Amino acid sequence: MTTRTERHYRRLLWAYPRSYRDHRGTEILTTLLEMAEDGRRPGLHLLLSGLRQRFKLPARRPLAWVAALLAAAVLGGVGAAAGTWIAWRTASAVPSDREVQALNATLTGIPADAPLYRETSAQRGPIVEILADGTTDWSASRIRDALTGAGWRITSFREIDGTSAGPEDQDFTIPTKFGIWTATSDGLEMYADGSVITGSLNTGEAHFTIKMWSVEPAVLRPLTVAGTVVGLLAGWLLIAAIARRRLATALATAGLAAAALPAYRFYRQAYEVMAYPHGSPDPTMADGSHGGTLTLIWAVAGLLTVAAAVIMAWPRPAVRAG
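The structure corresponding to this sequence follows.
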């Protein structure tokens, strides 16, 4: 019984930092075994005390506090981005370029490959958009049959007989057929519109825009929040683990300061994920005006510096004298 109890308490002692266990582990274990003989087994209290020690920073070390706050903020942003990325891995994948081109040709009747663009939504999800220009006729039945045959369920379909403006130097309009439709298929959404000139020398001149995107997965917001919380805690724990090494703390602070700008970008993205209307209706494109490449460089440089600080602070095995 004593052996099992001792093993149990030794496992619980892993809640404490290694330095604390090396310094006071034997004393705590002896006390716990004595308490166990009297019928007292403070398991939960032991775990909470160990976690409190792991979060504890050295007294009178303002740099450690600065580093811990920076680390929590930076890794919180990284965690939010990671949670969002993981969540989108559970969503339906948008069709491949070949599949999109084939569907476009069947829908529009324009056989040539059209310009195709892959974008990222404000919620960090995938979007594919294709723009088809050419000569064809307007056929609602062709569009409906093509969508149904490709496994899409039409959710709305509207046709409009209208006009489009003629050349700028001529004052007349051109009879035109317009169409707008939406559809869904296995976790994907589609929005498309098209126009075909029906009366003039340019009869059959057409333009179609087709956009498809993955529907927001149910775990997107929970995983974004969970990633943020895990990042905040991990950042603080990281600095608490190395805070007794002044040089390592200073190096980590420098790296975290370098990664502050990327962290700000990650928080902006997390806000867009949380604030965007539920269900990703016709999602807006992500704002790419904040220097994505430069942000990535700063993030990698900062995190590599932090990794170097952790390696510097890692306990070295004691060398025995010959």
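The mean pLDDT is 85.
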